[in-house]
């Protein structure tokens, strides 16, 4: 009974797929409608602060590394200036102590010679013990001063290194308060304006990653079971009907699900389908970034039989020489 039920389900799914298949699509191909989507990227603040500049707006196409906004960094700049001053003071202290150390080396050498001479004279009976004790005290004092100056140099060097590290940290923090585009793509939302104070992690922009644009389509088991990672696909957008874009199968759902309302026909929505992701080649997107936008509707075609020839109407454009291999990431 269970086997008969399963067989009927498979036949029903295959029949529905055959009946809803786009007309004129030859054997060895599968198709479904969908919409282009791009990965969203939030551009957030790292530290709390006030927005001092807004340089781009919604809809602007930005390039990776382009400055989008700046946070007021006058307080950090003051800390940076103080750290640089402390480093300079420590450097000056090192130089002064080094000069003092040279003088103390001469003084220590002289004290050592006088002490040695006093010892010989005492042994020969030409000098008193009191003079020897005095020369020993002078030598001990010179040696202590020498070691104190050495410690002062070591301490000044440690202070200088700490000040340099603080200055580097403040410089990094200032750089982090300059918000830049992490990828190429359009600005989808601008959420704040100049003068607004944001907490750490405050979202200033939401942008789309123009290097990761895809269409999710839904296929029944009879078709999804034949799809493989890396299969060639073609996207025909309503806005670009005469320019089928080459794509690659980069994700295949491991579990079936109900299709979303975006699928046009009721019969398809009533079936449990598998989600397939078709990713457009990033190199090709650069040539069409002004036309390929998130939300554009279209059809996605997958060549299930790698020996089948593409129909002229949906034959994808030639691929760029460099192609990023697909990954099974939703």
UniProtKB/TrEMBL annotation:
Positions in coiled-coil regions: none
Domain Multidrug resistance protein MdtA-like barrel-sandwich hybrid per the UniProt entry, residue ranges: 40-201
Cleavable signal peptide: none
InterPro entries listed in its UniProt record: MdtA-like_BSH
Gene Ontology CC terms: plasma membrane
Protein name from the UniProt record: HlyD family efflux transporter periplasmic adaptor subunit
Organism for this UniProt entry: Lichenicoccus roseus
Species classification: Bacteria, Pseudomonadati, Pseudomonadota, Alphaproteobacteria, Acetobacterales
């Amino acid at each position: 009974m269970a086997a008969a039920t399963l067989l009927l389900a498979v036949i029903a799914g295959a029949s529905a797929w055959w009946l809803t298949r786009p007309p004129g699509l030859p054997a060895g191909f599968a198709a479904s409608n969908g919409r282009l989507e791009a990965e969203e990227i939030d551009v957030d603040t790292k530290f709390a602060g006030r927005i001092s500049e807004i340089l781009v707006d919604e809809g602007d196409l930005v390039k990776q590394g382009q400055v989008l906004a700046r946070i007021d960094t006058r307080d950090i700049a003051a800390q940076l200036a103080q750290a640089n001053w402390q480093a300079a003071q420590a450097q000056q202290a090192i130089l002064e102590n080094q000069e003092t150390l040279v003088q103390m080396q001469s003084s220590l050498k002289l004290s050592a010679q006088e002490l040695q001479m006093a010892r010989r004279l005492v042994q020969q009976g030409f000098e008193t013990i009191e003079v020897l004790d005095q020369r020993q005290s002078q030598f001990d004092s010179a040696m202590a001063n020498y070691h104190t100056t050495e410690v002062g140099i070591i301490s000044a060097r440690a202070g200088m290194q700490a000040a340099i590290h603080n200055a580097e940290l403040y410089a990094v923090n200032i750089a982090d308060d300059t918000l830049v585009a992490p990828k190429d793509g359009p600005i989808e939302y601008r959420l704040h304006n100049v003068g607004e104070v944001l907490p750490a992690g405050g979202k200033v922009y939401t942008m789309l990653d123009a290097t990761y644009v895809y269409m999710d389509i839904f296929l029944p088991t009879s078709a999804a079971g034949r799809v493989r990672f890396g299969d060639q696909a073609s996207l025909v957008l309503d806005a670009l009907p005469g320019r089928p874009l080459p794509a690659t199968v980069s994700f295949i759902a491991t579990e079936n699900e109900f299709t979303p309302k975006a699928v046009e026909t009721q019969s398809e929505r009533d079936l449990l389908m598998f989600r397939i992701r078709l990713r457009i080649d990033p190199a090709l997107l650069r040539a069409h970034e002004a036309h390929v936008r998130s939300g554009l509707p279209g059809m996605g075609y997958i060549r299930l039989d790698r020996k089948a020839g593409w129909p002229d109407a949906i034959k994808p454009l030639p691929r760029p020489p460099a192609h990023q291999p697909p990954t099974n990431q939703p």
